[in-house]
Amino acid sequence: QLMSFEITWQGLVQALAQEGNVTIVTPVQHEPSKYHCDLFDTADGTTLAVPITNTSLLSLQSHQDKSFFDHQEDQEGQEGQESQAFATAAALSHAVKATHELLDSLGDASGDAMGEWQTQNASMQFQRIKKQFQSQWDAMWLPVCRKMNCDHTNFWDIILSSYGQTMALMQTGPRAFAKVKVEIRNRAALQRRFQERLAVHPVSLIQVWRRDDAQRSSLGSAEAYGHAGHLAVR
């Protein structure tokens, strides 16, 4: 039956060609471009489609899908960075407020001035106060420094690293501008207040004031912040 069908089919094709002056196009021949099918990139024995030189619908769709997912990943990455910057800003603001309260709790009298705690009892009391201060300080700044990659035992390193946090906040766009202003003001106010208290309570505060012991990454953050500010006013 198959052989009979093939013979009959060939006869029909030849008859149609003679009657209608039709040019027979085989799968390996090139038909007119208007009959090209964009759904096929290569010719085979079951279709009249021939290789096309322009981008097919399938490859175009694949490219569009890739562009969509790449854009979606970029958008998710930006949203993640923005969320992280905002969360760090909130933690930093809380720590700054708590630090002001801790500094105020030391009082205005120079109770830890050198020479006033030379007796054994006074020395023991000072050590207790010093230990308590350090414990409170660690509780305030350790969570923040985990986010900012700073040394929570060093106030100077915290300040330098905070410039990197402000840069990250600025890069999130206009929504963060108000938070950036607050962060800058808070940093300046805390530096001023800390140095005022350092003059009154040097022994208590000197343990967290080590200007020569800052991390390289924190110094880099401060330098990048200064450089960005310099370029902005040029």
Can you describe what's shown?
68% of the residues lie in helices and 0% in strands. The chain has 234 residues and is an all-alpha fold. The termini are far apart.
Quick gist of this model?
This protein has 234 residues and is mainly α. It has seven helices and no strands.
Q: Topology, pairings included?
A:
Layout lengths: L1 H19 L36 H49 L14 H29 L6 H16 L6 H24 L1 H4 L10 H17 L2
Helical content stands at: 55-70%
Output the structural class.
Answer: mainly alpha
The H-and-E topology, N to C, reads as HHHHHHH
Shape: rod-shaped
In DSSP terms, counting alpha (H) and pi (I) runs of 4 or more, how many helices? 7
Entry keywords:
234 residues; single chain; 68% helix; rod-shaped; mainly alpha
